[in-house]
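Figure S4 source data
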Amino acid sequence: MADITKKIGLSLGADICWPLCYEQVMRQLDLKIAYGGDTVRLEVERVMIEPFDLKQPCSYAVVIDRLTHWYHTSREWIKKAVAMDDLYVFNNPWSVQAMEKHTSYAAMMHLGMPIPETWMIPPKEYEPGNPDLKPTLRQYAKLFDLARIGKQVGYPSFVKPYDGGGWRGVVKVDDEAGLWKAYEDSGKSVMHLQAAVHPFDRFVRCIGFGPQTYTVLYDPSGPLHDRYTMQQNFITKEDEEHLRRVTLTINTFFGWEFNSCESLRKDGVWYPIDFANPCPDSQVTSLHYHFPWLVKAYLRWSIFCAVTGRKMRRTLDWDAYYAIAAQREMPYEEKLAAYGKLADERLETARFDEFCAKHLGHLDGVAWEFFATQPAKDAVRLKVQALFPAHEVEEFTELFWGRIQRWRAENRPA
């Protein structure tokens, strides 16, 4: 039996709070896991940005990536390390780069999910300087009747960029005049026009992290720090399982192990509306009460992947899902159950649960204790200082800290 140390890399951007908490709890866990005939220890290191030789070896077993969706140097280093060094990273950088909301809508429509009616609209304006643009548009671009499309989709509806971006450019339109204004204001962006799910009685965000899922009642009309509500028991266990299957189907289809799925319920039907979020919000300033769950989810999945040497699925295989979708007589709920079974197989849910029960049984207690400490409160304060004006730092630090203490009061380990 050998003593080995595996390194987990954190590839970070503006993240402040969760990495500090992740590192502290990892140290306090002080893991020495007997696995595969060895004793495995874990070390956490932040990944630096620097020039690199494509043949340079990678020292990490796992990298948690928070940069691929916008910072190209880190993305290309990660792709190199996966291709050459067998690095395990979440999420799959090729999928994050290639799959936007448009593709995710089309694919999930094919799998039978009740995605609201969605149209893609050519851009209002174009980048200058391309000599091929005018002849292309003159020869092939058809004039279209935006009012007719709006009438077909119906009102209210939403104009939003086809590739998403944290509520960027999302406009609710209630009539033809509103649609015209939203289109005129959209500039060079390629937009979707999507029917609203209206009226709805539940707006739920389901976070998927490996096989772990967590549902939150979401209030999009609230300020950012109140959108994740603290309401409990807002859906049935059957609805929760339905949303779990939807989320894990999407995640495993696209190779995303960390993603969030927003769904609206109308007349008893859940409509997924926004689910290409493969670098979802991880900040205490929006998650507050729910933040400790997320930190623990980061720990469980990364530790499991590092210690067990889980192999990364480098390429996407949609055929198994499409084979289920092709069974035309199968009701949607039965298809969703079959997709969910496939997702559990790909995520090794049973193996993960067994690993956590055997090796991470003390995590809940360690995290519960940590979130009462000064270093935990300091992590909250640092994030608040980065986002709020100086005169609001104390007020919002205490607000978020108080919500975490409410979580502790309601989630004391057995």
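Figure S5 source data
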Amino acid sequence: MASASASYSFTISVLFLLYLHLSCFINNLNANHTNASGHNHHKHQHTQNPPLNSRLDMAFLGLQAWKQVIYSDPNNFTSNWVGPSVCNYTGVFCAPSLDDPKVTVVAGIDLNFADLAGFLPNEIGLLSDLAVLHLSNNRFCGILPKSFTNLTLLYELDLSNNRFVGPFPLVVFSLPLLKYLDLRYNEFEGPLPPQLFNNTIDAIFVNNNRFISTIPPNLGKISASVLVFANNKFGGCLPESIVNFADTLEELVLINTSLSGCLPQQLGFLYKLRVLDVSFNNIVGPIPYSLSGLSHLEQLNLGHNMMSGTVPVGVCELPNLANFTFSYNFFCEEEGICKNLTSKRIVFDDRRNCLPEKPLQRSEKECKAKLEHPVDCSELCCVVGSNNNNVSAAGSVAVPPAAAAMPVSAPLLAPSHP
């Protein structure tokens, strides 16, 4: 999962910067063709430090202010952040401006794995031409300054693996071009804002923070293809309105988020889904048979819940399924080919269920106690409001709530951008 997101981020960054350079190249060709007769001896102007460039001057002020509040730089990453030639700074990338290809601007900053400690000053807002900001795997702390609203061209923001704190940074919703948002492995806390479920961001990673919230019962339209919310204390049910994500969603990762209730049949309408992981939760009831329609699904993880019933043959016959985990539940029957997934070369884990004649299953006593009280998902509905400390008043919770304790989940792998 981490390598996939790293590859996605790197690919988007490269394509975006190539677009900037290609636009400049085409414009320069047109200009040279038009003026060829009068400017045959025109000398090439060096773009590293063009004269009278107010936008690079502002970037210089912003970067110098930032350097002043970087308190630890053990690898001397910013040692050459000296003088006005900001395009020569380590980790700083310049490109032609979108609105005027003749003007060079600071279009990207990549400080991934620099092991820097400090915070983001208000002057970062002076870097108003930034399209890419990568700060993964550092020791930056504090909150995001309000001046982030000036970064209106920002396309990709990666703050993962740092020590940022405070509530969800609402300032990101003022960035109209933002498509990639990575906040994982920080110390953000509190509820998730409703805007997170109704925006145009393509990939959202908020896993491994301290968020305490619920998934809103009425989800709006979203254009995200990747949603990773794992290892936060959300609680409540996965709402039927998840169907609103059907046209775009390809990866949904909700590991260890305190989800309860039954999985809605509407999950089967997410026809583009390739990865579905709801492991380490308190989910009950059967596997929705509608999942049999997810023809693109490659990875399905239902492990470490309290689900029961039959493992449906329609799921096991999905044409692209490569990994199917349903261990540590209470399934009592496998249909058809589900009994022999090895024959389909599917990597599977069916341990600790109630499957007859299968090894490493639960005891007869455990299974009998669970199966004597079957779950009726039509009666187990999600209602607004709860006294549960882990959910907000505006959220939803399964009634009756799941009884098992939350298992401890291994954290998702940390991202590793190039």
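Residues 2-34 form the longest helix (33 residues). The longest strand covers residues 104-110.
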